[in-house]
Design goal:
Elements (H helix, E strand, L loop, with lengths): L1 E6 L5 H13 L3 E6 L9 H8 L15 H8 L2 E7 L1 H9 L5 H8 L4 E5 L3 H5 L1 H12 L3 E2 L3 E4 L5 E5 L3 H13 L10 E7 L3 E2 L5 E2 L6 H12 L3 E7 L10 E5 L2 H12 L4 E4 L6 E3 L20 E3 L3 H8 L6 E8 L7 H12 L3 E6 L11 E7 L4 E7 L1 H12 L9
Parallel strand pairs: 1-2, 1-3, 3-4, 4-5, 8-11, 8-13, 11-12, 13-16, 16-17
Antiparallel strand pairs: 6-7, 9-10, 14-15, 17-18, 18-19
The protein binds cytidine-5'-triphosphate.
């Protein structure tokens, strides 16, 4: 595979020498295109020696070869690491003022950018807007790692490890998955909310967040920008996913609604507490010998899914819920699921059986996806990754066209 490795002028450019080694050792033909300023950090000789290919930086360096067109059109994959704030700005604006940005305009293959910069630059609204523009066009922009920066500061802005960048980049081309969520923003809630009773106790549930994490990972693999609203999730979250950690139902509601304002899809995979204590005790509740146990008065939480379905925070937004059912004397798992689908008004409801070893944690799932009328749309059985892809398969046909 022909890979174009763009390097812009950040101190982390030296890490791209390792990235280059990983890519060439995996058998790929890599052309390194540094920006001129990046040669202050790592010189042309290093790139030429490690890639075995000539290195040019300007559109006038080899005019007869029309390099700025050939490099982009002949690449199967473009990786830019590090991508500085300036490079992101020039790419977002469609500038072509050096060989790298010109090649980015002619490339029609998957493009991955791994930003590295000071936290202040990464968090600046101008950079946020440039990243959003690039992601909106289908460019995969990784989130930088957090940690010690070049100076004394710490925070988000470090270049992700070369092995992580290489894996994320190669997954874009190796993956047989459709890129049918490219240019989309999706919000997935995962885990289980906790409602504090007193400073040490809470009402909670058994949800681990595994299915929500699988949904977030699957959406990223299919090209989406993903916000994962994680309620008390202790499992590792997928790389490239924006994670908003929450505890209570009220925090989850706020986070989902805020991210949902720009989302094409919201999937409520979190197990949301239906009730919360009417009041939270300021101090730990003590047992008093000889006195009866205290009772805890509960109040009902808002139904976030039903609200989202009724309001549609973003035009054309697809709203999807999960229904964890056990079945009882009143009806089967599916009877309850179909009734819930009609009640909630979500476009799709993923119905699964829980209890007796089914549903929670790392076990397989067996689901039926129904529409808002309770009609079957699809069934899926297998690992939570398999189920996650089946859910996205059912969502994709409901999405409004990207340019509508
Ligand atoms: N849900 C929600 N807000 C709540 C309760 C649930 O958004 N307060 C969402 C869940 O995230 C899930 C769907 O609604 O996507 C169904 O959750 P479930 O707990 O199965 O349903 P309930 O509404 O609690 O209904 P019931 O108590 O009748 O089972």
């Amino acid at each position: 595979m022909r890979i174009l490795l763009g390097v812009s002028a950040g101190i982390a450019a030296y890490k791209s020498a390792l990235l280059l080694r990983l890519l060439t050792e995996a058998g790929h033909d890599v052309r390194v295109v540094p920006t001129r300023a990046s040669l202050e950090f790592v010189g042309r000789a290093t790139w030429e020696a490690l890639s075995g290919n000539p290195v040019t930086t300007g559109v006038f360096d080899d005019v007869p070869a029309v390099e700025h067109v050939r490099l982009g059109t002949s690449a199967d994959l473009v990786v830019v690491a590090p991508a500085t704030a300036d490079l992101l700005a020039r790419a977002a604006a469609g500038r072509a003022d050096d060989l790298l940005t010109a090649a980015l305009l002619t490339a029609r293959c998957p493009v991955l950018m791994a930003p590295a910069m000071h936290t202040g630059m990464w968090e600046h609204p101008a950079t946020r807007a440039n990243v959003a523009t690039l992601r909106g066009r289908g460019v995969v922009v990784l989130d930088p790692d957090s940690g010690r920066l070049t100076g004394q500061d710490t925070g988000p802005g470090r270049l992700p490890e070369p092995a992580v960048i290489a894996a994320a980049a190669l997954a874009l081309v190796a993956s047989p998955l459709p890129a049918d969520l490219a240019g989309r923003h999706v919000v997935v809630s995962a885990g289980g909310t906790r409602e504090p009773v007193d400073p040490v106790r809470f009402l909670g549930n058994r949800s681990t967040g595994t299915q929500g994490i699988a949904l977030a990972k699957a959406a990223t693999e299919r090209g989406a920008r993903v916000t994962l609203v994680a309620a008390n999730v202790s499992l590792p979250t997928p790389h490239g996913v924006e994670v908003v950690a929450v505890e209570t139902t009220s925090e989850l509601r706020e986070a989902v609604r805020s991210a949902g304002a720009t989302a094409d899809v919201v999937v409520m995979a979190a197990a949301v507490a239906d009730f919360r204590p009417l009041t939270t005790a300021e101090h730990k509740m003590k047992k008093v010998a000889g006195e009866p146990a205290p009772s805890i008065a509960l109040t009902t939480n808002p139904d976030i899914l039903a609200e989202l379905a009724a309001e549609r925070l973003h035009p054309g937004q697809v709203v999807v819920g999960f229904a964890a059912e056990t079945g009882d004397g009143e009806g089967s798992v599916l009877d309850h699921g179909r009734a819930k689908a009609r009640r909630k008004g979500a476009d799709l409801l993923v119905v699964n059986a829980v209890g007796q070893g089914r549903g929670f944690g790392g076990v397989d799932n067996d689901v039926t996806i129904v529409d808002e009328h309770g009609q079957d749309v699809a069934v899926a059985a297998g690992s939570k990754d398999v189920v996650a892809h089946a859910v996205w398969d059912a969502i994709v046909p409901l999405l409004k066209p990207l340019d509508a």
